[in-house]
Every structure is written in structure tokens, then in C-alpha cells.
Amino acid sequence: MSPTAPQRLSRLTDTLRRTMRAERVVTTGPDYDAGRTIWNGAVSARPGVVVRCAGPADVQAAVRAARTHDVPLTVRAGGHDWAGRALSDGGLTIDLSGMRQVTVDPVAQIAEVSGGATAADVVAGAQLHGLTAATGSAGSVGMAGLTLGRGYGPLSGRFKLAVDNLLSADVVLADGSVVTTDHEREPELFWALRGAGGNFGVVTSMRVRLHRVPALLSGLLLFPWEQAQTVLTGLADLLDESPDELTVQYGVLPGPDGTPAVFLSPTWSGDDRAAGERALARLGTLGAPAVSQVGPTTTSDMLAGIDALFPFGRHVEIRTRSVPSLTPGVRTALGLAGDALTSPYSAVSVHSLHGAAARVPATDTAFAHRVPHLMTEIIALWDPDDTRAADHRAWADTVAQALDAEALPGGYANLLGPDETARIAHAYGPNTARLLEVKRRFDPDHVFQAIPLPPAS
Predict the structure, then answer these.
(1) Which helix (H) or strand (E) is 424 found in, with range?
(2) Considering the domain boundaries, does residue 364 fall inside one?
(3) Which of 212, 228, 259 corresponds to the end of one domain?
(4) How far apart are CA 375 and CA 250, in angstroms?
(5) SS3 for 157-210, per residue?
(6) 208 with 221, same domain?
(7) Which domain CATH number covers 167?
(8) How far is the C-alpha of 10 from the C-alpha of 346, rounded, in Å?
(9) Which residue, among 369, 19, 364, has the nearest Cα to 188 in the 3D structure?
């Protein structure tokens, strides 16, 4: 008779405690709770066992034991996947959050980053040497998950996406072996990792390119809601003329008084500080801002500001649509988002793929969507004791549906939910067949399931 799921889990746990330090294998207690705590407080999955990994050997042991005892596994690094794919009920969670080492070579301008390091960890290490990294806009996000899933961010106009700055990675595969992959070693795996996430193995370490930015300028502009369409119309014209060095994140936020506001978060990464100051000042003339806080900053401070707006523990539902540009239809949808806002924490954030990131050939990485476009992130956010969860989810759906007429096929895989099958099918464009062949080669049994992949034909 085949063992039951509880029996398999019990045998797995015994095996792990014999092969690694017992305190790293937890099923209850504070360390277990820390391992199953992720950004979205609505995710209630309870793994059967959490392995608090200290290094690659722990990851290898966990993968081998899970395969031997036929227990599903998930991987938790930064824990920022809103859909909760870092956890599964009754399974094994490989927790990398203790592996946060960052080592910087300031001459080569390269950082070696352990699998559990956050974007803030990487930026802090780089900053000690007058360098910075291409990250997303939040510091608490895991650097590996962000990078492997593409990584739009404030420096992407000049330095491309986070995924384009990956130089190599150490990966624990489904059989427990470790490979180092780059353009020369296992190049197909390296190609697939860059855009299709952790669907092929566990990245325990990676090397990323760093950059020197002597004149980083950034900040926040908030415009009253009655100026929304005026500001967005002017912004559409301005962005058409923007250089690579200027990236503007913008959208809808609740203002200090709880009413909706238009926000602009510009970042200048060019060497010419005076040109940057002129560019940021021009944004302020699009309306009469209620808040204008722009000037010299550090990447660490930029990331910390976003983290403060979106802390761990609130309940989250996210939708995403990619659109070609800030058209009248998109501006109308953003207006709807503000008019119908149901929560004092929800937001719509628009990220731009332009400049250097749009000049990468579509077949260079698994992420094929390289024409200039806007990625909209529709974030419904509410307190755990809020009884209007259905209303907040409906708001996110309504805004997403308002963008459907403008939307490009597919979407940003890092944000797509597991049930968005129509968008997942188009998320990798012409790279889909090649990507699925890499999956068949390196993980034919589908041991690893991270961000969505299209179904096999």
C-alpha cells in the first residue's frame, strides 16, 4: 500500500533531520511562522515542514528529500509573490531568507548575491562602493525573484531591466545537483531563467552587474485629483521626448487626506545633474502639485519609501495589464481607478519599459516583450480586519477590465495570477516553444512551479 500524504511528510521530516542540523527543519514555533510569513497576509497556506536553509547544501538536501518522499516543494525567498506561490499546504517550503549575503567587487562592478537577499540588501552593499543596482521600486522584494521575473525599475531606461543585468547563476536542479549557468555554461538554462523565473531550479547565488550613478535624482510629486486628466495628458506628451536617463513611475495613490491623487515618481540616472534637475522641474509644471519632494537621493532611500507604503501583512490582490502608451483610453481607466477607489491603501502604479530596456532583442532572454510599453500594476490592498474584501477585489477587476481594450497580449508574468490562463498563454510571445523545451529538459516532472508558464501544447 502506498504511504499516505501525512506518512510521506513524516518520513521526509525524519530524513531531513538526519541529514542536516535539526534546528533548520521546523514544523511549529517562531522559526516556522517566520518561514511561512509572506507579504500578502491573506495567504494562509501552512507547509508541512519549512527548511531554513543556510547554504546550497541545505537546498540540495531539501530537494533530494522531497523527491525521494514524493512531497511537493515550494521556494520562499523575499516572499513578495502576491499569489502565495512560495507556500503550499502540507508541502515542503525551502526558505532562503537566511541566505542574504552580498559581496561586491568594486573594480569589476559586480555583486555576488545569495538567493535570499532582498533588493535593499544588494543596493546597500553596492552603495558602500559608490555603486548601485538595477532593481524594482521596492526594497523588501527578493532580488532573485525580481531579477528572474524581469524587474521593471527606476533605472531601467538607462541600465535595462534587472533581468538584463544578470551575469550568471548557481542553480540547484530537480535531481539535487548544482550547475553554474551563464552565456557559455548551460546557455539555454541561462536564457530561460532570464524572464521565466524559478521554474527550473533553486537559484542559491547569482552575479549581477552594478552601475555608477554620480547624479541620482528622484522623489515624489502628488497632484490633487481634479488635475488628474490635465497632468496625465501633459505627461503623455513629455514622456514621448524623454531620454533614457529619465524613468517616471506614476499612477494613482490615496493622498494624505485619503482622497485619490495622481503621483509621479521620477528618477534621473544621468551624469548631467543640471539636465536632470531641469527634467524633474518640468514635471512639476504639469499641474499645481500638493506635494513636491524631489532632489538628490540614494537608491536605498528610494526603495525604503515604497516599502513604507506597502508593508508586509495587509491583504493583497493584484491585476496587471500592459499597454502601448498613455493613450486617452488608458488615462480614462486611471481616472476610473481614482474615482472608484475603495481602500485608503490601494494604488495603480504604471511602469515604463523604454530606452535601453527596449533595445534588447526579443530573443535574447525568455522575456520577449521588448517594444516600448507601459506595465500597469493594479494593487488592491486592505487591512486584515476590513470586511470589504470583495469590494476591493472588484475594484481591481474593474480597473483591469477598463484597460482591456488597450491591452497588449499576455502580461507581466511576475504579477499574473495562476488563473489568468489566457494571458499566461501569451506572456512569453514567440519564445514560448523554446521556453517549454527548456522546462522539459531541466524539470520534466514539474518539481518547480514559480511564476506562471504557458501550458505545454
Answers:
(1) helix 421-424
(2) yes
(3) 212
(4) 11
(5) HHHCCHHHHEEEEEEECCCCCEEEECCCCCHHHHHHHHHHCCCCCEEEEEEEEE
(6) no
(7) 3.30.465.10
(8) 42
(9) 364
Helices (H) and strands (E) in the chain, counts: 14, 17
The pLDDT of 264-278, averaged and rounded, is: 95
Residue 80 lies in a domain: yes
Range of the domain at 199: 102-212
Q: Which has the closest alpha carbon to 124: 303, 350, 357? A: 303
Rg, C-alpha atoms of the chain: 22
Give φ, ψ of 351 to 5 degrees: -110, 140
Residue 85: the pLDDT is: 95
Tell which of 212, 235, 267 closes a domain.
212
* Contact predicate 174/63, CB 8 Å: yes
CA dihedral 7, 13, 16, 21 (to 10 degrees): -160
Judge whether 260 and 335 are in contact, CB under 8 Å: no
Residue 135 has pLDDT above 70, yes or no: yes
Give the DSSP letter string of 238-261. HHTT--TTEEEEEEEEE-TTSSEE
C-alpha to C-alpha distance for 354 and 371, rounded to whole angstroms: 8
Taken in order 32, 123, 195, 381, is the CA torsion positive or negative?
A: positive
Would the pLDDT of 63 be above 90?
A: yes
β-partners of residue 223 are 262
The total number of structural domains that make up the chain: 3
* Residue 59 pLDDT level (bands cut at 50, 70, 90): very high
According to DSSP, residue 355 is labeled G
Which among 147, 5, 3, 170 has a CA at the least distance from the CA of 72? 5
Residues 339, 358 within the same domain: yes
Give the position of cell 533531520.
17
